[in-house]
Amino acid sequence: MDIDTIERVEEKYLISREEKKSLLSSIIKNLERDEYFSEQVLSLYLDTKNFDFVIKSIDRPPFREKIRVRAYETPTRSSKIFFEVKSKLSKGPVKIGNKRRLVLPLKDFYTFQSGKSSLKAILEKNKVSDSKQLQIADELDYLVKIYNLEPKLLISSDRTAYVAKENKNFRLTFDENLRFREKDLRLEKPGDYEKYFPLTNDKKHCIIMEVKTMNSMPLWFVRELSKLRVFPSRFSKYGKIYQTITERNKNV
User: Fold this and answer.
1) How far is 82 from 22, CA to CA, in rounded Å?
2) Alpha carbon distance 32, 41 (integer Å)
3) What is the DSSP letter of 147?
């Protein structure tokens, strides 16, 4: 097992397929494919019985957190997954994202989820002694226990990712074909997903573009956004899908 702690500036944009094509044609000379260029992204969100975490997130307080398990493609029980605490702090127009995460086999997550062992005990059993890893395990153990968190929603999308040639800290991702399911939340089971569409009322803006950087955005990128009149958007996959499900249940 190992751990990543990532802090960076994050910004999201909702764009059309035409805007994506135009943008990439203008800036592709400055980009190269990320190590994980094209993949299916699966995010299993944990929440309270009453969905307190996502409801708080929708209200957009200056500080908010999400607890999730992240996997890529369809994992097996022995595949490594990321168990994450993702927080966001808004400082005026700047949004600073922070991820604290453990990497562990999916089967160990299920052992933890069943209540048979704490995360810290799992790390210790695997002879992991790194203090930072144990600290994150303690944090996740505490959050899951104190809030009685459980898997609530599985969201998937198809992602393509790029990094800037001259600054690998600048990462650009495009998420398409957003889909979800409320039942059968095992990550290793393909299952049936329900499509989430459209993202906006005009039905054209169906792609979530996200910029992640440690520094300011490159000038060549900002210029192209300005030409296309593409502006940041407040969009949370978990929040929007939760709202869609809630509204639908009201009408049943």
Assistant:
1) 33
2) 20
3) T
Closest of 238, 156, 158 to residue 190, by C-alpha:
156
* In the chain, beta strands by DSSP E: 2-15, 31-47, 63-72, 80-91, 94-105, 150-164, 171-181, 194-195, 207-213
How many Å apart are CA 36 and CA 12, to the nearest integer? 19
Determine the Cα–Cα distance for residues 191 and 182; give it in Å rounded to an integer. 11
CATH of the domain at 13: 3.20.100.30
> Locate tokens 């639908």: which residue?
248
- In 3D space, the residue among 18, 10, 12, 11 whose CA is nearest the CA of residue 203 turns out to be 18
Tell me if 42 sits within 8 A of 22, measured CB to CB.
Answer: no
Boundaries of domain holding 56:
2-250
pLDDT tens-digit map of 151-184: 999 999 999 999 999 988 999 999 999 999 999 9
Average pLDDT over residues 227-236: 91
Give the chain's radius of gyration (CA, Å): 19
Task: Give how many domains the chain has, as a whole number.
Answer: 1
- Reading the block at residue 31, the tokens are 């980009």
